[in-house]
Design goal:
mainly alpha; Cytochrome p450-Terp, domain 2; binds carboxymethyl coenzyme *A; 374 residues; three-stranded antiparallel β-sheet; 3 strands; Citrate Synthase, domain 1
């Protein structure tokens, strides 16, 4: 066995998957063989969620059934609403999401059943309830009354409604839907690998998704969309952008929303999300962040040949939609639950305990001295 260390598992293929792939021949991320940008154009998020979980796009009967189940499972238990009401108001919503999914695991009657059928039912419940938990916290922390989910609304419409009490115009909802489609799945990224690692000990889906949420929170992964917005707020106006980015490069800072482990010449999700960012900016009549976006991107590509990843356009898009910055990564969660769940089920179907080795560089063998001799 080779002792060569591949830090960060760089370039290591650890398993097989049927869920998604970046296909070089079409230069695109694909879910179950479909290009993500085509799914954005022709499908609603619910269809893509079905595709990721069930391996194929639904026909209209399958979609209606899936949507009905999603809507029927949106509401939370009284207990979970109470827990959310008592959470510290300053909690990061990612920690709220993590805790809420963990509590769902305590309440779910099928927690210890990891059969494919039970896992599919539990995945759907987590998928349906997590937006409600997040929106409830969104309201409570600003002293507002919780808004219960509404069955007449789509997944995206309902999230806006539960957060803000109203559904925005359809172009804004479409842009949000597109962001969810683009965030839904991305193979063995760190949060998905975390979920698969937890699953590999034959632990349950609530635990695996709880761990995945913790992993997504970090700024090198999902947390980047919030960091992008902090950066844009710091830059403040387009006239400051060039100086800011040149300084950042001089200081060798990591510029959030740029770079990717897999894509080295551009994240295939960016052009689609950039287009919808522009549409939202136009509707909101606010081009400030678009101008900052373009200046920073141009310099990053020219000076470093580092391209933006999908977190770069989603950050300012969510800001223009009216979401608080610390809700950006939780929005990523409500979408990625689909990808995580598909991977958890795939791991269960062909499991092998994930247990890599480490090259030891600690002390040589030492004799234990009794306490009074140390
Ligand atoms: N800003 C400045 N320099 C960068 C950046 C960046 N965003 N990304 C990579 N580099 C440089 C890095 O300093 C290194 O330079 P050198 O070889 O001189 O040391 C080189 O590019 C290779 O980078 P790396 O960090 O070794 O590459 P990686 O594959 O380990 O890291 C990454 C990928 C995403 C962690 C990194 O690009 C990064 O930190 N980006 C900022 C955070 C971010 O936007 N994360 C979101 C990732 S994509 C969507 C998601 O998962 O949410």
């Amino acid at each position: 066995m080779s002792d060569e260390i591949k830090k960060g598992l760089l370039g290591i293929v650890v398993d097989e998957t049927e869920v998604s792939k970046v296909m070089p021949e079409i230069n695109s991320l694909t879910y179950r063989g479909y290009a993500a940008q085509d799914l954005c154009e022709y499908c609603r998020f619910e269809e893509v969620a079905y595709l990721i979980l069930n391996k194929d796009l639904p026909n209209s009967i399958q979609l209606r059934k899936f949507e009905k189940e999603e809507k029927n499972n949106r509401d939370l238990s009284k207990n979970l609403y109470e827990i959310i009401k008592h959470m510290p108001k300053k909690s990061h919503p990612m920690d709220v999401a993590r805790t809420a999914v963990s509590v769902m695991g305590l309440e779910d009657k099928e927690t210890s059943d990891s059969s494919p059928e039970a896992n599919m039912r539990k995945a759907l419940r987590i998928f349906s309830k997590t937006p409600t938990a997040l929106a409830a916290f969104y309201r409570i922390r600003s002293g507002k009354k919780i808004i219960k989910p509404k069955k007449s609304l789509s997944f995206s419409e309902n999230f806006f409604y539960m957060c803000f009490g109203k559904v925005p115009q359809k172009e804004i909802v479409k842009a949000f839907d597109v962001s969810l489609i683009l965030y839904a799945e991305h193979s063995f990224n760190v949060s998905t690998f975390t979920a698969r690692t937890i699953t590999s000990s034959l632990s349950d889906i609530h635990g695996a998704i709880t761990g995945a949420i913790a992993s997504l929170k970090g700024p090198l992964h999902g947390g980047a969309n919030e960091e992008v917005m902090h950066m844009m707020k710091k830059i403040k106006k387009p006239a400051n952008a060039l100086k800011w980015i040149n300084n950042a490069l001089k200081n060798k800072d990591v510029v959030m929303g740029f770079g990717h482990r897999v894509y080295k010449s551009g994240d295939s999700r960016v052009p689609t999300m950039r287009e919808y960012f522009g549409k939202v900016a136009k509707i909101k009549k606010d081009k400030t962040f678009e101008k900052i976006y373009d200046i920073v991107e141009k310099v990053m590509i020219k000076e470093k040949n580092i391209h933006p990843n999908v977190d770069y356009p989603t950050g300012p898009t969510y800001h223009l939609m009216g979401f608080d910055t610390d809700f950006f990564t939780p929005i990523f969660v409500i979408s990625r639950i689909t990808g995580w769940s598909a991977h958890i089920m795939e791991q269960h179907a062909a499991n092998k305990l994930i247990r890599p080795l480490a090259s030891y560089k600690g002390n040589k063998h030492r004799k234990v001295m009794q306490l009074n001799q140390r």
